[in-house]
Amino acid sequence: MLTVQGVVDRVGPTLLRAVLVAESPCAVSDVVIAESGRRAPLAAGDLVLGPAVSSGREAVELIRHAGERSCAAVLLKPPVSGQAAVVAAARSADTSLVEVRSGTGWAQLVWLLRTVLDAAADAADTDPTDLEPSGLGDLFRLADAVAAVVDAPVTIEDANSRVLAYSARQDRTDPARVSTIMGRRVPDDVLARFRSRGVFRELSRGGNPIYVAAQKDGTLPRLIVPIRMGGELLGSMWAVVTGRVPDARAAAFADAGQVVALHLLRRRARVDAERRHSAERVRAMLEGHGSVRVAAAELDLAEVPHRVVAIDAAGREPADEMRTEGLRLAMWERITNGIGHRPAVADLHGLLYAVVPDGPGDGGWDALRTALNGTAGERSLAAAGAPVPITDLPRSKAQAQETLGLLRAGLVPGRVADYQDAWAVLALHRLANAAQSAGVAELGPVPLLRQHDEANGTEYVHTLYEWLRHPGDPRAAGQALRIHPNTLRYRMRRVAELSGVDLTDPTCGWRC
Question: With 90 as the cut, is the pLDDT of residue 424 above it?
């Protein structure tokens, strides 16, 4: 277990000093930056950084909030970190207080803290009985070794451009590398720049090193090696170089990719096994099989209301099965790795289902909804059921499926919907289904209009539908039909003539 004192010791006294260590220390899990004027989504074990905290009052409020969330520590700069009220608040909240030396840059500190946490996590994953050579048990040490081979700082990334490890040496860097390591993945704008130069096309095709010259925005040259095994692209290694690399050193860099590939394969096998086990537990909970509480405990789900989120990776567009499977896998990767704490996810009957706690916070429904809405240009659709106790997840799943059906039909706008927010459309949809089964559609003027449309190629039923959807607003109804408002008025006069219904009668909508 990596404690706050352990983090302080590893970073060193040049940057950090422990002002107060909590009496009940907990394992450090992540690094979170508290933004000014906003309550940060905190979780147990977080190291909370306060770069915007400038007064004792703000510091006390942040410490109290962190204590309520069982965070590991709050990191502040002097003089705020030494104020008596701030220290007293930390002692009262049983939260460690760490002082960040005045000259320390916050970005540099985030970088160093995540280096420490990643190295500790990677060491914890190492099998102590593993006697295989080549340093496969520690991907960070492997990155250091590869950096020595190519004589340049190195990052090791998976096939989705997520950073798995990086070398300790930082003698050569640029904003693209800094943002990549701090964000744990290559930023979209950086991806776009390298994609425009054909880098990812070359990565997908071959296995030779790729040299990318310096760019006008200050991005330094890169030497990139695809990591392959059996023809499959597992990831890539990126080295920040000063210019063209000698052939011998570039060849040695490429050879190191085979060692990294073995490590990534073993890592993926472990992750796949964990994912299958987790998915089996989620499926059992969603279908009401076995002990739900036992499954929830294995998945580390708290005893709070949870929602089931149904996700259709293909969206409204038809797609072949192979492409749809790839979309689901990519979506699964994003949900389980890129959106806060990992939610419980399972693939069931062609859909992805995620079980997330209700409300704000890292890994909750609010965070997931924001992330899904932020995936611009994607076709995926997602719908959440109502929050329910852990033992009642099948009900939330059914609600999510019903709401997803409305999204697919275009009856609810957007790509992400909430069961509770869509209640009006859901109620009308249920009434329509009930009316259909009761034969209500066979009554009144609608059958006559439908017969006329079929015989004459008109669209009076559709026109009547939009007229009812936009009462008193012929312009909006016309836009929905893509016709002029005057054309709509003409059609409605014809509807009245054919049906014999007085459209000025306020009960017309009910009778139609």
Answer: no
